[in-house]
Fold this sequence. Notes:
The complex is a heterodimer of chains A (370) and B (97). With 370 residues, chain A is an alpha+beta fold. Chain A contains nine helices and 21 strands. Chain B has one helix at residues 30-36; strands spanning 12-17, 20-25, 43-44, 50-51, 64-67, 74-77, 88-90. Helices cover 7% and strands 28% of the residues of chain B. Chain B is built from one helix and seven strands; from the N terminus they run E-E-H-E-E-E-E-E. The N and C termini of chain B lie far apart (30 Å). Chain B is globular. Chain B has 97 residues and is mainly β. Chain B has a single domain (12-90), classed as Ubiquitin-like (UB roll) (Roll), CATH 3.10.20.440. The complex binds flavin-adenine dinucleotide and FE2/S2 (inorganic) cluster.
Amino acid sequence: MLVEQASTGSGASGQNAGSLHFQIERRFLERKGGLGLEGEQTATLSRIAIDDWSTLEDRLGVSLHVHMNGGLMVAENADQVAILKAKADRERAMGLSVETIDGAEARRRAPYLSEGIVAANFMAAEGHADTRKIAPAFATAATAAGAEIQIRTRLTKLEWQGASFRAEIIGSEGAFTVGAKKVLVAAGVWSARIAAMANLHLPLFPVGLTMSASERTPHFLPHLVQHVAQRLSMKQTEAGNILIGGGWPSRLHRVDGIFDLSRPAELIIQSLRNNLSVATKTVPRVADLNLIRTWTGVTAVTPDQLPIAGEFPTMPGLFCAAGGSAFTLGPTFARLVADQMLERERDEADRLLAVASPARFDSLNGFMGR
Amino acid sequence: MRSQADITRGMPVTIEVDGQMIDSFSGETLLAALVAAGHMRLRNDQEGQPRGFWCNMGTCSECFVSRLDVTPVRRIRACLITVEDGMRIATRSISYD
Ligand SMILES: Cc1cc2nc3c(=O)[nH]c(=O)nc-3n(C[C@H](O)[C@H](O)[C@H](O)COP(=O)(O)OP(=O)(O)OC[C@H]3O[C@@H](n4cnc5c(N)ncnc54)[C@H](O)[C@@H]3O)c2cc1C
Ligand code: FES
């Protein structure tokens, strides 16, 4: 049984940029000591996610507007090119197929790029998919496979009772309780609150982001476009709109020093200006398009930027899948955590998800009396 | 369609919409002029069904039309623009783009 307080896709899954980015994110390269084992494991998950996305439409039996026509991460000066090259070397060593191409070659493949672009890293598998379709499509497929999904139904209490969990739930027809041997917390930015219901700390922090859409225009941008040194993601939807994002902040509402997750984050106008400025510098022709919509979305980050997926060592039976770039990696987390919960090739799933295991934050729960 | 009682109108203005001339008055929004002339269909959706304006306040972007008398051609929200003499407008009710 899945309980969802609003509707499927009403959270970050329906608000995000829909980028399928498999290149290593720039934020990871900035770490001291580099990417070691974590990098290897993240790359392994990316490789699996590429396969998952390539087959997802067939497996779910619907069009999700998945386009994997390649992704470009662009650079504008020599320092940035050096980062691109170092990044591509590391990625190739991890088995990801990434090539660094010069500005002329980048414009040959992507004629819409500005003359200011001097190089790009190209990865053929990258792309994008339609954010608004994914979660509902998963829900339909799960229902067909026998899952019970209750929307407008909210979990309010979760307790471990020695042999099983007891969940208190409020639905449209009133409150009820459910017993379960295993529970998965997959509540995005709300996951820390669900964990707290079970008396556990879960270090997931909300951040507000900004997204914009232009009016529709004939298709000219088949790729995912990112920038190695600036916050930028661009792509063109099936309907023709250009989606512009890349991690520009919006402002969370606060009540009594607590982030209010019940309200959308507030737009920061300077974020919008900066985002559009990077976009028009990279792909000049978008400057001629009207902006038709800007929205904010809230997602969850962890202290080490890696996602959290797996079983809590301090509370066996309780699983989590939250945080990170969980549009790109979401289908993979779903499959692997399901394998763990159902004890299907469990060792393999544990191995693949080791990098994301909640075990790394176990020390936080050492003082939480049971 | 325009109300008549107790109204002082601006100067008459003529604009071209999809090749036809439409009478309107200075001070009216382009959307008001379109609606008064019966141009409710501003584009077709992907199934070819008619779509028209919705919010009349610049939010929904359903009233986009092309302004042909400026270079380059601009796409404008009809509800945010007042009519000007000689305006040439194309709706997207002819084909889906
Ligand atoms: C603007 C933006 C852009 C992004 N861009 C990308 C991108 O391009 N690529 C990428 O990979 N990732 C991207 N992300 C991140 C990605 O969207 C998220 O990581 C992912 O969608 C999280 O999915 P989720 O299912 O964990 O959470 P959510 O989609 O937020 O789902 C959590 C659900 O839990 C429900 N819930 C909460 N509490 C309860 C309760 N007590 N009872 C019942 N139900 C409850 C909520 O209603 C919600 O529907 C972006 C995020 C944002 C905000
Ligand atoms: S009618 Fe909604 S923007 Fe003009």
